[in-house]
Amino acid sequence: MPSTLSATISASNLTILNGQPTTAGYVMEAPLSVLLRNAAGDADVNSPTGAEFPNCTTVTKQRFANLRFSEQMGFEFQPPNWKYDLTTGAKGTPQSQATLGWIYQSESGFYNADFPSVNNLNKAGLADSGTRLQATFSGLPSGATIYVSTVAMTYTNGVPVPNPDGVEQARLTGSAAGAFAPVAATDTLDGIPVAALAITQGNASAVWEILSGNGSSVPGNIDIPVWISFPGNGVGVGTAHVTMGFAPVSTITTNSETAPIPRFTAQSQTLPLLTILDSCPASQYLVTTSPAFLPIVVDGQPYTSPKSFPWQPGTTHTVSVANAVAAGNGTRQLFLGWNDAGALSHTIAVPPSPTAYVASFKTQFLLDLKILPTAGGTVTLTPPTSDGYYDPQTKVEISASPNPLYGFAGYSGDISETLNSTSLKLSTPRSVTVTFVRAGPVSSTVGVTPASGAGSYRSFQAVYEGSQGAGSLTWVQLLFAAAPDGGGQPFCFVHYDVKAGQMWLYSDVYGFFAGPVAPGQNSAALQGSSCAVEPTYSRVSLDGAWLTFEPFLLFKVPGAKRVYLRERDDAGVDSGWVQRGTWDQQAVGSPVTFINPATSEGTGTYFELNFTTMPAPALYSAPLGWKQFLIAADSDGGGQPFCFVHYDTAAGQFWMYSSDVGFFIGPVAPGSASTALDTSACTLYTAGATYTNSLYTQILSLPIELKAPMKGVKKLYTRYLDPLMTDSGFVEMGWYRIP
């Protein structure tokens, strides 16, 4: 062949004999999402009854639903090898699959009927069929006719039109198995070619075959509109359903050179399609709320009120509502009771005549009360409330009482008052803030040094003052951010627990504080996406009323930031965020990598990988991350044998990826005599392999033997994940010729 062929195969219970041809039949498992959507194709139908029709009037060829089949991984909708005429179904010539450099994600890949018979190149592996999708309808009402689109649709402003070129093409075919046999349209509805399905005892089926994909790996959709006709004044029936899924073209899964191979397993999902309600004359039973449009649950299924049901007299059903329903913006609806005096959730026995079951609610408004600081005092509300909600027009008396060492400063928000006692009426949701102030010395932030500048790393001196001495501070904080709330950008947030003498860093990567780590301790634990703390060079000192916190920070991302300080003391006084400076963050440099030899030839040598780090050797030399060495035609292997060595810095162990078995083999410690790291491409002699970690430099020495499959010129790549969690990706460092 003119180019190298690379394939990845996973199989079970399959014996591979070296040098012997092996033919395998297989079934693929692939996820398929199915939905029932409304007639406009712009919303899902989630009701347990599907689309609802009254039995009062005749329905004639009404579009009421859309069947949607959706890829989940971007490869489920596979076309056949042949090109078909979408109208006539005539088969064209097979598509050539001998294009160099093309990746074929198809079970029929590399098949062409015009290829020579040598090596079975002309044998079919599902070459005549694309992926097939099936919809099976059940429980259809007597006298009904159901129509489906013969081709896939795209909806624009609620109107379906046949898919254009470049979008998935599908065609209604005669059956789930056998050759492609397009079904001719029996009618045109809404400008769409449709076919009426044969219904037998309320059941019908339709199958569509994928004829072309969307030309990308982006998951696509197949939309099929559905129409129905049925006579009026009939008897209401139960809910009809539709089962949607793959339609296998063959059931053969054994080894075969000629049998078509099923593309996917027969997955399916059953959805409610439609219900014809027994509503003429008035015989419905209604479950609703006052006010309307609140959520209800009937027989375990959620609905929005009002909702009617074609129940039979004498049957029993369960109805329920929530005790409180949020209506947004500080408003809620609180349950009062059912008109049949039933409990919040209760069972009803259906009477012989139409009946409405009504759950009544009342509106309540929220009084959002804030106390600043929380340690400053207490607030009494009359009448009291357990959750802040009151009935409309309730007059609420508010009384503020400061704690010792505090004074009352006033009310703000929907009240502006300096007297301790006041009142307001809840005609709408209200918000009130009660503020207390410390009487006497107050703890406060002092400043940060440097107060401005730029750089990728340095020590910052943040100074805080305690009202009763530095020891009266509970904690202090330092924040580098666009705004106190982060401003939607990466931020650096360092916390120092004064009582415990420990540092923490809020990790926006994991969503919680990392730590604790004491200043002066050697650790790489305090990291986020924006920065890392080097504890070895971090210090804390207390001098009278002042506490100086000096974290050594390394910045990972660039950007202009404001510098905020915050503190809290033992009396509960919280300064809040106070801006004390600005800093133009620059990203700290990555380790510099060298390799020796960078260019050479032979069947093996000692390769030395040198990683030089600055400016925080203690952090960079922490036993975290990994280092990798790749000898290959390209960074992805280039479809040729390769030698891939991995060193786990944290565990101090070597691994080697073996394409012979498809996973990493190992681990083996440096200096250990072992033959474990051996593949058909290369061998790492671990007895002579070493890893040294000095203040600024980490060195890997790798004695490697390169074997015959590696023959030719190969590139040398290094890659690392450093203690700052920076992944360098594969970087080409040189070449090596294997004779």
Account of the 3D structure:
With 739 residues, the chain is mainly β. The chain has five domains: 32-277, no CATH class; 285-364, no CATH class; 371-436, no CATH class; 444-585, Sandwich (Immunoglobulin-like); 592-738, Immunoglobulin-like. The chain has one helix and 57 strands. Strands 17, 20, 22, 23, 25, 27, 29 and 31 form an eight-stranded mixed beta sheet that branches. Strand 41 (539-543) and strand 42 form a beta hairpin. The chain is flat and about 90 Å long.
Rg is 36 Å
Structural class determined from secondary elements:
mainly beta
Low-confidence stretches: 1-27, 96-113, 119-127, 253-262
Mean pLDDT: 81
- The total count of helices amounts to 1
Summary, kept brief:
The protein has 739 residues and is an all-beta fold. The strands form twelve sheets. Strands 17, 20, 22, 23, 25, 27, 29 and 31 form an eight-stranded mixed beta sheet that branches. It has a seven-stranded mixed beta sheet with strand order 33-45-44-36-37-38-39, with no helix packed on it. The protein has a seven-stranded mixed beta sheet with strand order 47-57-56-49-50-51-52, with no helix packed on it.
Topology of this structure?
Elements: E1 32-37, E2 51-54, E3 59-71, E4 82-84, E5 91-94, E6 132-138, E7 145-149, E8 153-156, E9 159-162, E10 169-173, E11 187-189, E12 192-196, E13 204-212, E14 221-230, E15 239-246, E16 268-277, E17 285-290, E18 295-298, E19 301-304, E20 307-309, E21 316-320, E22 324-328, E23 331-338, E24 345-349, E25 356-372, E26 377-382, E27 389-390, E28 394-402, E29 406-413, E30 421-426, E31 430-438, E32 444-449, E33 454-455, E34 457-459, E35 461-465, E36 473-481, E37 492-497, E38 502-507, E39 512-517, E40 531-533, E41 539-543, E42 546-550, E43 552-555, E44 559-569, E45 578-585, E46 592-596, E47 599-601, E48 604-612, H1 617-620, E49 626-632, E50 643-648, E51 653-658, E52 663-668, E53 682-684, E54 690-693, E55 697-706, E56 712-721, E57 731-738
Parallel strand pairs: 2-16, 17-25, 25-31, 33-45, 47-57
Antiparallel strand pairs: 1-3, 3-14, 4-5, 6-13, 6-15, 7-12, 7-14, 8-9, 10-13, 11-12, 15-16, 17-20, 18-19, 18-21, 21-24, 22-23, 23-25, 25-27, 26-28, 28-30, 29-31, 32-35, 34-43, 35-42, 36-37, 36-44, 37-38, 38-39, 40-43, 41-42, 44-45, 46-48, 48-55, 49-50, 49-56, 50-51, 51-52, 53-55, 54-55, 56-57
